[in-house]
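A student in our group prepared the protein record below, which I am reviewing. Thanks in advance; the entry in question is below.
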Amino acid sequence: MIEDDGYRASSQYRLWSFTQEQLHTQRSETNRIASDKVHRAFSRARLTESNGNNETTSTHPTIATLTVDEEQQIVRWGCEKILEMKAILEPSPPSQVIATAIQYLRRFYLYNSPMTYHPKSIMVSALWMATKADHFFYKLDKYCSHLGVSEDDVKAPEFLIMQALRFTLEVRHPMRALEGGVAEVRMHASDLKCFKDVPAAQIKKRIDAAGDKARRLLVADTQMTDAYFLYTPAQMWLAAMLMVDQELTLSYIAHLFDRLGTAVAPIKQKLVDTTNECAQIIKAYKSPDNDKATKAELGRIGKKLRKCQDPEKLDIVQVARAKAAEKREGNDSDAEKASKKRKLERERLEKDGEVFGPDLKSVKTG
């Protein structure tokens, strides 16, 4: 059950694995930086407005920014919207593509705040990038038509997202690990205590049912949690199996370790404890569709976000166009400088010609 060297060398392990404390520290820092930027942006906007109207800014109240917890609820909302996009797109993308897009969104907001970039501006681009990364291709115009967005809405945030992802697009999902895990459970089924004297047909039915339920948990509820940041794919699929069939999962773990002797008992207990912790995190997720209190709270946070959204980052498309225009102006300026330099060089050479005589091609031969 120990992760192999291949996983430890992956970008997911190196860049996107954290402890609870590390996650909280990073999110708190992201929130602090974003809140400061929001306050400064509103101050600049008010100063500009007051200068135009000859008014002072002292009458304006301080903007109430989002808390770390409120930011996370907004991010979960964005993840849920990506799940909904699966039913809108034709053909419908595989669950792995949707999961990849959700993890891109979650990784993006580890270092960016919804106050700076609203998820509705990021999620369509994150899903578009996931379709390319997981080789499930759409034509851009068709993709935009299904989601009711423009091509600029999709393309403008791409580089911003790539920067936040540290230019690493790989996501290792627990769904694939689950397939291998279920196959291994089937292989050892006859040796598991929970299947003693149970007919083979019933064993297969129970394992298949547990695998199907676990997969549904992994492609939906698990995506809305911090599980990917805190646990390995193997730990996540075991946690999902534990949630849907505890007896089967514990029998499987016991079989793997008990045959190795008592020396590995501490490792076995550590695995069981870790799997339980992961299961509790997944279980804690509550969908707004099924929880009125969560839905009401999300509505309150949404209204608050509209009031504290960074005014200088509201329109990512316009920001991207402005940057592109600046770059073009810079390129035009460089080209103009190069042209002037070539002109001066030609004039210098012409003067040299006057000193040393005409070009050879202009000298007539008799």
Remarks:
- The chain has 17 helices and no strands.
- The longest helix spans residues 316-356.
